[in-house]
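Fold it.
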Amino acid sequence: MGRTFGLMAVDWEQRVDFDRLRRERLDRIKTLLKASELGALISFDPNNIRYITSTMIGTWGNDKFVRWSLLMQDREPIMWDFGSAARHHQIYCPWLDTRSRAGITNFRGGIRPEAGRAEDVARKIKVELEQAGLTKEPIGIDIVEPPILFALQAEGLKVVDGQQLMLQARVIKSPDELVLLDTACMMVDAAYEELYKVMGPGMKENECVGLVAKTLYDLGSEHVEGVNAISGERTHPHPHIYSDRVMRPGDPVFFDILHAYNGYRTCYYRTFAIGSASKALVDAYARCRYYLDDAISRVKPGATTGEVAEAFPRAQEFGFADEEAAFALQLGHGVGLSIWEKPVISRLIPAEHGEVIQEGMVFALETYWPASDGYQAARIEEQIIVRKTGAEVITRFPAEQLLVAGQRYQTVTGPLSTMRERQSNLNRVDGAATPNGGTESPPPLRGRVGVGGPSPSPSERA
């Protein structure tokens, strides 16, 4: 069972051991590099740099590609960074010893090519490779701007893909990484609690984003990477970006909260109904939950990603032409120092190109289902740790049934049902119309905590 602790360091309890975290991450990639055909790894990907060197300069630098590291066979990593940052690492990152150095790339093209920054980067790297006798070996690289790639090749270096080796290193999480991932999810649990307390008609999607960001930063998040806040008719098709839309009674609203705690991320969807939910939305949510639970039940060491992906509905079942058109709506993906790592679980990926699930992996599983009315949809996601006996879900905010947020309304005969159509004329109680389209009375109140719906049978999914 996973553990979470307080967010401070204390002397009376063993919490995250950051020295061990740094050492075990570096040892893992060193071991894999030693067993590979590569002579060295050059990293411009900030997540790989952090994994290898345990340095960062703020999330503003994540898309700049101005800093890099070099890890050579049987050597300790070398880090090049902004001069002042390099100096800071020299003072506060003793694990780098004297290997924190000043360096700058071509500033994402902002510096004219004639200034020779790309060539300077290549020369700095080649000097180290020459001293290690590795200039004739393949050199792995993760992501790079074309001028630097060309400069490395001009120096006679054989540059190959190094990202696969890095992601192989990152796929199995150490005990300290698991605690950090679990803690990051705990912080999102709290954000959803705050949302549930205040959501209602008149609140805007972007207000929800602000509340989530404040909650996470107050708890110690280092980076709110993104918050999807999608409501009403915007839920189908899923736009993957929030707006200033105002929530209305009966709206569905789903969120994806992505943030980092000490570098370790979350990807964590939840769906709510505002005030009440229609039968179509309830049924969509039940299908979403069914597919997700089926996928979770298949997770165990030795299973394949293809076997898990079989739990997901086919694209044509929910209105898309093919799996590429529906990609990311029924998905599993590794989570660690970034939200997209190995393994990737999708019907788009042929089973023979999948991965074997291993103990210590952490990934998210997410499902989506459009309502039969054509303008609503549900979305749920759970983040899991693969244990010896199967999946441990570490996203704890309730999601087994659709939650109804907002004001509880009282009528002259008692509480207004939380399962109702959003148009009042479709909810008459004199026998003329009901949410189920018949003449019986409306279904009994199920309470504010949530309403459920029937799960599809296996034959319905075939």
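Residues 300 and 366 are 17 Å apart (CA to CA).
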